[in-house]
Amino acid sequence: MFDSLSDRLDLAFKSLTGERKITEINIAESVKEIRRALVAADVNYAIAKQFTERIKEKALGAENVLKAVKPGQLMVKIVQDELTELMGGQSAGINLSGDPTVVLVAGLQGSGKTTFSGKLAHFLKTKRKKKPLLVACDVYRPAAIDQLTVLGEQINVPVFSQPENKNPVQIALSSISHAKDHGFDVVIVDTAGRLAIDKEMMTEISNLKESLSPNETLFVVDSMTGQDAVNTAKSFNDKLNFDGVVLTKMDGDTRGGAALSIKYTVGKPIKFVSMGEQMETLDVFHPERMSQRILGMGDIVSLVEKAQENFDEEEAKRLEKKIRKNKFDFNDFLSQIKQIRRMGDMKSLVSMIPGIGKQLKDVDFDDNALNKVESIIFSMTPDERAKPELLNMSRKKRLALGCGQDLTQINLFIKQFDQMKKMMNKMSKMQGMAGAGAGMAGNMRRKGFRRR
What is the pLDDT of residue 361? Predict the structure, then answer.
C-alpha cells in the first residue's frame, strides 16, 4: 500500500538534500516532483495542483522563519500536514446512538461490502462491547445470505434473514423489531451491490435509508479502483448523502488515489479501512497516522494499539514465568502464533515500525510459513509439545511423514525454536520482557524457517 507514492515522494525530498536554505527555485523542483507523485498515485490532477500550490506557499512562507531547519526536513513536515488535512484532518468515529443503532451498508458490486459488514460486527462486538445483529438484505445475489451467515458463524454474531421475502425494506424493518425484542443494540444492514447507473437499485437503497433513518450510512469502496472509486462515491453521495466511506482491499496493489482524495471530492470522511479477508483486519482510519506511513515514518501508535487489543495480559505473565525458567514449549508457541494472526499480516505490521518499513518493503514475508509451523506442531504428540527435548531422530522422521515436509525442514525448525528459547530466556533476564515470544515468533514467520 502506497509503496510507489512513498518512493516518489522520497525522490522529491532528495532534490533538497544539500541545500542550505529554501529558495523559490529549489522548492519549485521539489513541488513538481510531488505533483507527479500524486498524479501517478491516481489523484486527480486539479487536486494535486491545488495541493502542491499550498505546499509551495507554506514552504516559501517559512523561508525566513525557520532558518535552523533543513529544507528537506521542512518539506517533509509541510507535506505531512497537508496530506493529513487532505485525508480529513482527524479520525471520524462511528455514530452509535440510537436504540438500537442502525448502520446501513451500501456499495458497488464486488466492493467487499458483505465482508465489511461481518468485520464491522466483529469490531463492534470485540472493541466496543456491543451486541450486533447482521441483517441480510441482498435479495438478488445468489448465496448472498449464505455468505453473510458463514461470516456470522465465524464471529459468533446472529444473522437475521427472510429468504422467502424479496422486499429489502420489509426485511430491514422486521430486523429492527427483532433486535428490540432480543436485546441487540446494533443492527448492521447489508444491502445488495449496485451500479451507480442502475436507477432501480439506487431508488431501492434510497428507500431503505428513508424507511430506516439509520444512525450511520456507510459507503464501501474498493480502493484498488483508484480515481474511479472517488467518482463513484460522488455519484452515490449525490443520491444517498451517506455519512462516511469505508476503503476495502487496502492490502492490494493500490496506488492510494482514493484514500488521498475522496474526502476532498465527496466531503465525507473515511471512517474505516479494511485489509485482507480475516475478520480482525478492520481499522479506524486516522489521517495523521496514514500520512506518517506514506512518508515512511511508521505508525507506532497503531502498532501498540493492535498489540494491546490482541495480547492477553494474563497470558503474557504466564509466558514470562515459563520463559524465565526456560520452560517455553510448543504449546506456548502455538498460543503466540494465534495472537500474531489476530494482529494481521506481517508486512503490514512491519510497515508500522518507524525506520524499518521502508528498509524491508522488498522482503518477501511468507504468511503461509506459520501454516507450516502449525502443521509440524500439530503432528506432535501431547508429550512432545510439552517437552521439546523428547524429539529424537526417530520422532523427527515421524513428524516429517505426518506433516508432509522433509526432515531438513523439521530439523531447521527445531533448531530455530531452540535458538529462540535461549534468546527469549536471555532477554527476559536482562529486560523482563513479558512478550518476547511474540516478537520471535514474528521473526520465524518472516524467515519462513527456510534456507534462503
Answer: 52
